[in-house]
């Protein structure tokens, strides 16, 4: 047998294959899989990842190109991650090169060394410490620096010094000559979750349900298992996480905690930071600078970070001693990557846990129907926290029938009366409407003109405050004109209501109570979200109105009334997951109410109070809803009872996407079908978006294996197809959105 002498490399490219290279001359002859390799590719130089060493290649040796350089000794993707990502590439049928590349922190993608360059800092020597600034009275700049360094005994970086003194260097060098200061190199520590309030936060005594959950989880803490922890909002799930993490890290293992969006879950971060001071690293954060991300990544890899908290892609953080994975709010749609490598964080986290032989805990007040189904089939263990922890009681639900009710812009007079009662009694009121802006449609009453986006099949949303019309699908914006562009009439009318309009109505109705609006528009400036949340918690804002931003993880202990302004949203949607999504939102928003000693009331405005899903939701809660929703899915032959894959295509020409999908349909039709249903290609529900026409083809099967066997045959053909080159196409396995 010949020596392995060919490098098989994954290269970030849309091609679903690997590439063979000769090893670089005069270098480590035996690189391990998972290291980065710099190679020529076409007429560029790119960074690939070594998949394996092979004995030979299908390509003639004289035609093989030579790799330029091997960048790492130690793999940047250790064997367990390589296995996970290769699994993901196969399961989601996504090019391996893109999958591997996407798993690396940005700095490593560009070829930077997988270590941190140390920082220089300036600090006082022993002699400097013993010197009083006034002894340097004749050199005022030096005295100033000395004073500054006395205040910062850990030392100051050049960047910090720059901010304080524009020309600090000459004086510093003089101090150095005198032996009063020294420059030293330190490696910056990884970013820790911030603690903004003081105190360690003494852990409360667990209630029985919590204790049971902790005990059951710890019983099986040393092997693979999946546990669904279903606990109503405020039932103390986070407390359960904290206890288990404490035990896992006490044995020297690491806990990886995945959350939907870090910016929206500051409270979870904060609680980990307080319970484990200096031990909870933040792995991923949209605002985290690349260098700090690398620091956290390295600390996870070398095992110095016991707790790693991050979003979606933190799943691909290397861990030296993995011990536990927690996925908080497991139902959250943001755990599904929606472009490029379209993976489910939940499903891949389960695969990672299984490969590593460790437990994984999925937590939610409103679990996805998939997870409930798996729990019912005993694939997952199902633990319940049925009651709120501490003193809080459960909120009371009520449907408010809107039919024939007097209304003002989407809010009924009846609801305003109820608000009045709560406000007068000192409570806070929270209103939920998943639509931002002033109104979703602007209409000319004279000629019927409607403001539409030229690039999407959608109306433009009116933003009154900013005096503009904006498309919420492509972001296009145009100034608001007081005249109709068609007929010149001044009678332009806003139809429907968004959060901004509700805010305006309520400001008139309740001028004596201050309000806070929480949506993407009102919180776009840095820090504005935190400021608003602070004012709400301090009771300075009495009426809160917001979008789904409100549903995530915040505790508003003084909220006694929650109003759901549009309970019908999601009841009649073309998307089969819409009712699940809406129920989750309603239950999550309701969970914000009455978390402390005030009892909460939840009022849902609806034109369909008799609708079975709403009825079920308010009489039996989320689990009642889930039971009948699962029944519906079963009879409609939808997930989780069927497996789906969606082939999408888009192009600037209207016919091209459909032509490509028709070809795909023909080719698939000639294959071994074996229980896979092929739907006809159709335009997407919103056909045109950002100037591109979109179409889709749905594949459906009761057997995951059969579906994947078909995809395995189909994809290579699609890659070769001529019509495929004229469109942008992608495959979405287990899609969550069907548009
Ligand atoms: P969840 O994560 O399920 O929404 P949390 O863990 O955030 O619930 O708990 C909700 C509130 O109840 C928090 O303020 C928490 O400190 C408190 N809490 C949790 N467990 C207990 C307990 N056993 N006794 C008293 N208070 C508790
Ligand atoms: Zn007009
Ligand atoms: Zn648009």
Written description of the protein model:
The protein is of the alpha/beta class and 739 residues long. It is built from 21 helices and 33 strands. The chain folds into 5 domains: 6-109, 3-Layer(aba) Sandwich (GIY-YIG endonuclease), CATH 3.40.1440; 119-186, no CATH class; 208-385, 3-Layer(aba) Sandwich (Rossmann fold), CATH 3.40.50.300; 396-438 and 497-634, 3-Layer(aba) Sandwich (Rossmann fold); 643-733, Ribosomal protein S10 (Alpha-Beta Plaits, 2-Layer Sandwich). Adenosine-5'-diphosphate binds at residues 204-207, 210, 231, 233-239, 389-390.
List the defining traits of the structure above.
739 residues, alpha/beta, GIY-YIG endonuclease, Rossmann fold, 5 domains, 7-stranded parallel beta sheet, 6-stranded mixed beta sheet, 21 helices, 33 strands, 31% helix, 23% strand, binds adenosine-5'-diphosphate, binds zinc ion
Separation, N- and C-terminal Cα atoms = 52 Å
> CATH homologous superfamily name of the largest domain?
P-loop containing nucleotide triphosphate hydrolases
- Distinct compounds present: adenosine-5'-diphosphate, zinc ion
- Give the CATH level 1 class of the largest domain: Alpha Beta
Largest sheet: 7 strands, parallel
How large a portion of the residues is in β-strands, by DSSP E? 15-25%
Rg calculated over all Cα atoms: 29 Å
Unreliably modeled segments: none
Mean pLDDT: 90
Named at the architecture level, the CATH assignment of the largest domain is: 3-Layer(aba) Sandwich
State the helical fraction: 25-40%
Instruction: Give the helix tally.
Output: 21
Strand order of the largest sheet: 11-12-10-13-14-9-15
């Amino acid at each position: 047998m010949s020596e392995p002498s060919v490098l098989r490399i994954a290269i970030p490219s849309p091609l679903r294959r690997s590439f063979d290279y000769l090893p670089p001359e005069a270098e480590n002859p035996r690189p391990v899989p998972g290291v980065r390799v710099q190679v020529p590719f076409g007429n560029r130089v790119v960074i690939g990842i070594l998949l394996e060493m092979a004995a030979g290649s299908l390509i003639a040796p004289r035609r093989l190109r030579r790799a330029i350089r091997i960048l790492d000794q130690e793999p940047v993707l250790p064997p367990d991650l390589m296995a996970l990502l290769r699994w993901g590439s196969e399961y989601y049928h996504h090019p391996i090169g893109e999958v591997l590349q996407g798993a690396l922190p940005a700095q490593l993608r560009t070829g930077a060394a997988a270590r941190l360059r140390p920082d220089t800092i300036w600090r006082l020597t022993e002699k400097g410490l013993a010197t009083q600034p006034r002894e340097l009275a004749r050199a005022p700049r030096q005295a100033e620096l000395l004073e500054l360094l006395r205040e910062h005994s850990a030392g100051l970086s050049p960047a910090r010094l720059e901010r304080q003194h524009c020309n600090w260097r000459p004086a510093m060098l003089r101090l150095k000559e005198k032996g009063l200061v020294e420059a030293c190199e330190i490696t910056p520590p990884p970013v820790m979750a911030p603690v903004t309030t003081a105190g360690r936060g003494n852990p409360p005594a667990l209630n029985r349900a919590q204790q049971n959950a902790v005990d059951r989880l710890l019983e099986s803490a040393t092997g693979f298992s999946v546990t669904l922890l279903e606990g109503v909002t405020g039932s103390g799930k986070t407390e359960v996480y904290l206890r288990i993490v404490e035990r896992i890290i006490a044995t020297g293992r690491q806990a990886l905690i995945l959350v939907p969006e870090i910016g929206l879950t500051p409270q979870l971060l904060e609680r980990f930071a307080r319970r484990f001071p200096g031990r909870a690293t933040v792995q991923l954060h949209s605002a985290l600078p690349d260098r700090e991300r690398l620091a956290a990544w390295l600390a996870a890899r070398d095992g110095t970070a016991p707790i790693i908290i991050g979003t979606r892609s933190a799943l691909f953080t290397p861990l030296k001693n993995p011990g536990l994975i927690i996925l908080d709010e497991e139902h959250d749609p943001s755990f599904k990557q929606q472009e490029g490598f379209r993976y489910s964080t939940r499903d891949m986290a389960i695969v990672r846990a299984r490969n590593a032989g460790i437990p994984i805990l999925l937590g939610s007040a409103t679990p996805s129907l998939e997870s409930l189904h798996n729990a019912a089939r005993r694939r997952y263990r199902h633990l319940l926290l049925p009651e709120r922890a501490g003193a809080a009681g459960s909120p009371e639900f009520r449907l408010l029938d809107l039919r024939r009710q007097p209304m003002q812009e989407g809010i009924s007079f009846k609801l305003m009366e109820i608000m009045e009662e709560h406000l007068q009694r000192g409570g806070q009121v929270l209103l939920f409407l998943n639509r931002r802006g002033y109104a979703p449609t602007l209409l000319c009453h004279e000629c019927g003109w409607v403001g539409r986006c030229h690039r999407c099949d959608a109306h433009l949303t009116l933003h009154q405050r900013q005096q503009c019309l904006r498309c919420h699908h492509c972001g296009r914006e145009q100034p608001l004109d007081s005249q109709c562009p068609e007929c010149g009439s001044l009678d332009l009318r806003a139809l429907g209501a968004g959060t901004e309009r509700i805010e305006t109505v309520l400001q008139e109705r309740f001028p004596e109570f201050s309000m806070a609006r929480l949506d993407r528009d009102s919180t776009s400036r840095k820090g504005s979200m935190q400021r608003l949340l602070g004012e709400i918690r301090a009771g300075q804002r009495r009426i809160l109105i917001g979008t789904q931003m409100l549903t995530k993880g915040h505790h508003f202990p003084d909220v006694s009334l929650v109003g759901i302004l549009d309970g019908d949203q999601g009841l009649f949607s073309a998307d089969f997951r819409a009712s699940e999504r809406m129920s989750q939102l309603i239950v999550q928003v309701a969970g914000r109410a009455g978390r402390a000693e005030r009892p909460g009331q939840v009022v849902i405005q609806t034109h369909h109070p008799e609708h079975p899903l709403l009825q079920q939701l308010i009489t039996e809660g989320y689990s009642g809803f889930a039971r009948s929703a699962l029944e519906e899915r079963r009879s409609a032959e939808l997930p989780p009872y069927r497996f789906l894959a969606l082939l999408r295509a888009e192009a600037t020409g209207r016919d091209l996407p459909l032509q490509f999908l028709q070809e795909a349909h023909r080719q698939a039709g000639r294959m071994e079908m074996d229980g896979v249903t092929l739907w006809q290609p159709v335009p997407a529900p919103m056909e045109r978006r950002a100037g591109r026409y979109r179409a889709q083809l749905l594949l459906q099967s009761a057997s995951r294996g059969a579906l994947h066997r078909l995809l395995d045959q189909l994809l290579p053909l699609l890659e070769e197809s001529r019509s495929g080159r004229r469109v942008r196409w992608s495959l979405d396995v287990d899609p969550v959105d069907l548009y």
